[in-house]
Amino acid sequence: MKHILFVCTGNTCRSPLAEALLRQKLEERGLAGVSVASAGTGAWDGAPASEGAYLVALEHGLDLSAHRARLLTRELVQGADMVLTMARHHRARVEQLGGGTRAHLLGEFAGRQGEDAEVRDPFGGDLEGYRETFGELETLVLEVAQRLAKETPR
Q1: What CATH number is associated with residue 62?
Q2: CA-based, 20 to 30 A from 69: which of 4, 30, 39, 62?
Q3: Is 154 within the bounds of a domain?
Q4: CA end-to-end span of the chain, whole Å?
Q5: 14 catalytic, yes or no?
Q6: 29, 102, 120, 121: which one is catalytic?
Q7: Containing domain of residue 128, as a range?
Q8: CA dihedral of 70, 99, 30, 109, whole degrees rounded to 10
Q9: 99 lies in a domain?
Q10: Which of 51, 99, 49, 47 is nearest to 74 (CA)?
Q11: Out of 13, 14, 70, 91, which one is annotated catalytic?
């Protein structure tokens, strides 16, 4: 079983959306050998998904109602085969916690370079900002799912 961990700041917007999207894409491809989770470098343990993330997820048939934020820990990093982060400072924190070569910037992993490789944080913004972030995550996560499909035996 391969374990993927998405990391953002509060674990209430970007990483829960990426987690739900990857689960959906893996299910669509029939890939059962992959588990997905998320955490935040500055998360308040137990906080629900932000309202914007929750609403935008619903618009796309994804349910974040059961999501609860988790603070990124050394144990979570060590339990992951791959850690995909939304920004470079998240990757730096994962590396501090022992992530090493398992830590990747999501955008870079999906083939983007430079500033385009980071996923903008919609927290505190309007619903349109959440929709833009969702669209970006959908594109990036689709690339991750395609890569995993090639690497994971069925």
Answers
A1: 3.40.50.2300
A2: 30
A3: no
A4: 11
A5: yes
A6: 121
A7: 2-149
A8: 110
A9: yes
A10: 99
A11: 14
